[in-house]
Amino acid sequence: MSIPASRIPIYDTLNRIPGGLMIVPLILGSIVGTLAPAALEIGSFTTALFKDGAMAFMGLVIFATGMQITPRNAGPIVGTASVILLTKSLIPGVLIAVLGLTTGMHGLFGISILAMLAAMDNSNGGIWLAFTGRYGDQRDRGAYIASAINDGPFFTLILIGASGLADIPLEVFLAAIIPLLLGILVGNLDPKWTEVLRPVPEMVIPFFSFGLGTGINLTDVLHGGLTGLALGLIVAPFTGGLVYLGYRYLLKRGRRSGIGFAAGTTAGNSIATPAIAAAADPSLQSYVGVATTQVAACVLVSALMAPAIASWLLKRNGELRSPDEAQENAVEIDGASDLGPNPIMK
Question: Does the pLDDT value for residue 109 go beyond 70?
């Protein structure tokens, strides 16, 4: 069945923009959520689809991702998630803590150590799922569990010496991984479901990206000012670059290592991390206001910049395509070679 030509090539236009299926809806969602938030509260299916549905769509992607995990590839997924945690959370966090021992909590250039930690030691699981759902494979999508672990103030509280208040409630962690575990179970019991839900990640990316955008208030981004912008410009290439190095030298992903840059983001709920840290240690209270607005700016800037860098690097290496597309191209090339030499070229 052929697909009719588009009157207005919306899909193709978005696809020509690096990460466009994710970035453009994210920007549109942040604009609507800032300028006309009441429009998203109209109720019924409108609110469910464009505002409240982001978490449900992400859960569906996680469930569909779990269906791709078999005993044969579980090891690579755990290995990928471990490398992401090492390079995105532990290494940046330790480096910033060492910097704090030198500068004190005031940090550098108006960016406190509290703001740096809150912005750098976690990652935006939604952005990761959106990007790897389009360009990654089951190892990358399954590595979402790294975001489930580093999400929130866990590493920040540990690294500033408040580990006594940094316990992750068991039910919170379970809630994040139950869809993945159920997907693994169903996919291994009935592989046909695996094939049915295989297209899910790419289908729902624009919808949950828009929903994620509605949670970003552009006013907070503006309040973050130049320091918040600078923080975002640092987080994406620095932490994303560390994950890229992990992909290239630890995971040996070669020309597709650029996917690692998509982890160079700041999770949306990290905006609350400075206040949580100050509740654990009241001496940090003076940093909370500025740090919160800086992190808010970093959330948006890194959400735009990280997938853009990852897309650019993949495109430069000729790998800006899904693994399925790469496999189809390889099959076509092999099929053409089986036909023998072109008689015209004899």
Answer: yes
